[in-house]
Amino acid sequence: MKSDTTDLFKDIRSARDFEVPELIDSLLNDKAFAKVATPIVKSFTTWESFAQILKSCNTIQDFQSKITQPLINLLIRKTTTSKVEALNWENIGNGKGRTFISNHRDIVLDAGFLNVLLYENNMDTTEIAIGDNLLAYPWITTLVRLNKSFIVNRSVPFRQMLNTSIHLSKYIVDTVANRDQSVWIAQREGRAKDSNDRTQESLLKMLTLFDSKNPKEALMKLNITPLSISYELDPCDYLKAIEYQLRRDHEDFKKSKGDDIRSMITGITGYKGHVVFKFGNSINKELNKIPASTERSILFNKVAEMIDKEIFNNYSFFSFNYIAHDMMTGENNFTEHYTEEEKQQFDSYLNLQLDKINIENKDIRFLRTKLIEMYGNTLKNYVDNQK
Q1: Cross-strand pairs, 228
Q2: Which of 15, 256, 336, 363 is 20 to 30 A from 220 via CA?
Q3: Per-residue pLDDT tens for 275-334?
């Protein structure tokens, strides 16, 4: 019989069924939540009806089926080509708990879309890693915990960081290996602003802290499965470009909580075009080939490369990616993948996004280059990976 670790991880874990009614009451009594949610809710029902639906939720599955899934599907209809698809289902069909590690495009919807896809294919949804920097208000914490999110504490003092990371590592392995519940976590802290997706070795080190003396065995226990996420358009691209220039021009630049909230809202409500998820192969087979005597630093480097290779090989590409790559290289290697009209559309799109930027000493050439890189780097990584 599996041990109950509910209390052991109470400070970071997702909500449990017995907590749902109390958490929903706290949401409905939170004026800040009502202020944010009311305009969204009114686009498809009345606040009173929404409140009744919330009150009818007695389990996490109730909450996801009655609240999360309909809301994400509404966003799919309004902000994509009405289609978010997933490929390579055969790679995850055995029902075992696994650790999905993916590239990171959207703060909220990467995991949101994934769980809708799993739910609609009669598979259990994942638990979601979310940084405490995004939990700006109590209602956000409540909401994400109801949606099976667990908290990654990044704002603790440095001297506490090791113990915090060990605690998180133990929670993840308990979730995957003991509770047989899959989790999703991004391959790096924060999104890759230029779409140059690379797995941070520090993430892999954190994941093994529950058994740091045996890092290879620890990683195998997590059943890591790379996942590639491809958005035709990134509604936050101009915000990422702004951040690039501000970091270039100001050494002490730091994002505020307001910046994160703005990115969350823009990512959720902005148009994304076609969205594709591709499941890679579990890395356990390749990981098992690495000698047990391999030094830790070399092991983590090799595993990061394994994950990156799977992600690169499973990207989906759209016309803007091919155009951007040709613009980056100054060559015409991919002209068969786009028309002259699509090239003009990309140029118009870049100008439209640049027009949204209002900062001091606006460097249009620099900003334009960064926008192009965001759309060209995925194809660059794929091409480089084939060599």
Answers
A1: 278
A2: 15
A3: 999 999 999 999 999 998 899 999 999 999 999 999 999 999 999 999 999 999 999 999
How many other CB atoms are found less than 10 A from the CB of residue 369? 16
DSSP 157-203: -GGGHHHHHHHHHHHHHIIIIIS---EEEESSSS--TTS-----HHH
DSSP for 310-324?
HHHHT----HHHHHH
Distance between CA atoms of residues 90 and 114, nearest Å: 15
Gap between the Cα atoms of 236 and 253, Å rounded: 19
CB under 8 Å to 122, separation ≥6 — which residues? Answer: none
DSSP 290: S
Please, which residues bridge with residue 149 across strands? 128
Distance CA 240, CA 259 (A): 11
User: Measured between alpha carbons, how far is 112 from 125 in angstroms, rounded to an integer?
Assistant: 10
CA distance 80 to 72: 11
Among 104, 106, 133, 158, CA closest to 256: 133
What span, in angstroms and rounded, lies between the C-alpha atoms of 354 and 348?
Answer: 10
Classify 37 as helix, strand or coil: helix
Question: pTM above the 0.90 mark?
Answer: yes
What is the rounded distance in angstroms from the CA atom of residue 77 to the CA atom of residue 311? 26
